[in-house]
Amino acid sequence: MKTIELDFQNVAYIASAGLRGLMIGQKTANAKGGQMTLKDVTKVYNTVVLDRLSLHVDRGEFLFVTGKSGSGKSTLIRLLTMETAATEGQILVDGRDLLKIKKREIPVYRRSLGIVFQDMKLLEDRTVFENLAFVREVIYGRRRDTSQRVASMLSFLGLSTLHKRYPQQLSGGEKQKIVLARALMNDPAILLADEPTGNLDPGASAEVMDLFELVHRRWMTVLVATHDLAQAGRIGHRRVELAGDV
Length: 246
Ligand SMILES: Nc1ncnc2c1ncn2[C@@H]1O[C@H](COP(=O)(O)OP(=O)(O)OP(=O)(O)O)[C@@H](O)[C@H]1O
Ligand SMILES: [Mg+2]
Description:
Elements: E1 5-6, H1 18-27, H2 29-32, E2 36-44, E3 48-57, E4 62-66, H3 73-80, E5 88-93, E6 96-97, H4 106-111, E7 113-117, H5 128-140, H6 146-156, H7 172-183, E8 190-194, H8 202-219, E9 221-225, H9 229-232, E10 238-243
Helix pairs in contact: 1-8, 5-6, 7-8
Adenosine-5'-triphosphate binds at residues 45-46, 49, 67, 69-75, 227.
């Protein structure tokens, strides 16, 4: 039987700079949450994909999850977004037990997260600005401050020059930056990303990941699942490697 477990031998843990840690502690989560805890989580599809995985991600932490193809990185993300449920074990997100969240409450739960995947689509018939405004309106309804919030998000991420472009006028890297901006429009305390640089060349990947770092320093807990070891090896972040079947 295939078993996959968290391989503590391969966990690279580099403490983040003390000063920055302090800033994060104050700025993020104290007010807004941002903790995730997995206790003995097992996920079985046809085979055991995750085997008694225990993991704690603290407020304001930036964690890379690596591991070879099939080791369960996406599965871990899908458990956290509640696209699938654990076979056994407990997952707590800011103290909430995901097993106890009712089906109809899942969309509301998801809105408390920022989610970025590899191939996320933007609305092709709307500009960058409209794409961002749209999600904010879906979540909060029509509000007077929507335009201002979109403009400040784009400005914060250094993307203001793209605001009038349509998705087909963006490079892959630019698109992924806008997908990130869009994921932040609901003010999440936790950002979950699955292969956010999956289709990008090394230069564009580094630029996208720089933005993740910027966002992290500013206010949130970030978990990135990736096979991109160049990015996952960035200094200052914890890395957990899921050990797959050999
Ligand atoms: N819905 C599903 N039904 C059955 N098996 C699945 C399902 N989703 C994933 N799996 C299996 O679970 C295992 C882990 O898949 P997962 O997508 O989590 O791996 P991964 O680490 O993200 O891989 P990659 O690096 O290729 O993205 C694989 O063997 C996959 O075939
Ligand atoms: Mg995957």
